[in-house]
Amino acid sequence: MNLKQQSSQKKRKGHFRKWHRRFGIAASVFLLNLAITGVLLNHYETLNLHKSYITSSWLLDWYGIKSPQSVNCYESKQARACRIGEQLYLNENYWQDSSASILLFQEWQQEQLLVTSSSIYWLTNDLQLIEALAFSDELGSMAVAANIISNELIVETEEGDTYRFNTDFFGWEKTEILLHEKPQQTVDVSNDVQKDLRRHYRQRQITHLRFIQDLHSGTLFGLSGKIINDITALIILWLVISGFVTWYRRKNKR
Description:
This protein is an alpha+beta fold. 41% of the residues lie in helices and 26% in strands. The two termini are 19 Å apart.
């Protein structure tokens, strides 16, 4: 082998080692992300990652999370119930997810009564849940209207049937009483309250578990993230193969 060939071979090896190092450094970042997120995913239940939420505004903006403009609130003498999107709030504190509309919220028999199109809830005056009944279980249908008439709770179902709640045996019975009285009206709340509700709504959309899953898979960065993950995986395969080839050549030289 002449000097020119030796120089050319040495130059190729130098380029090979240089790019091997560069790809190795780039792949190490990818592997570090996989290792950290993999450990977190493996212990997500212990860390309660499925129950905690992302609150960072810029991350929520990155996901494109927006809050509904419509906020429906009802007031009793002591409290306020609001629905935004598919979330229910009591006194601006998150209570539960629900796709049901609020039909009634007021005091009844020294308790707070919340009636939605799917369920009825009895609450203490400090808004602790006492009892809940689902209309589908009891009446086989959703409710479309509810009101307190002559100190009796009356609801109307989707089928047009009317029921009164019998407090003696804690159940429903059909009645001829019509819901002729005006239903409870929503109340206007201040801009600050609406702003707080919209902020709370956004902050309950993305769990830490989903964020880590998206980071682990590259979905966080959309299609480009998935492509980068695939390319990096191919680079790692190339590093493994090229590393083995380099080791094998050196072994044969010895």
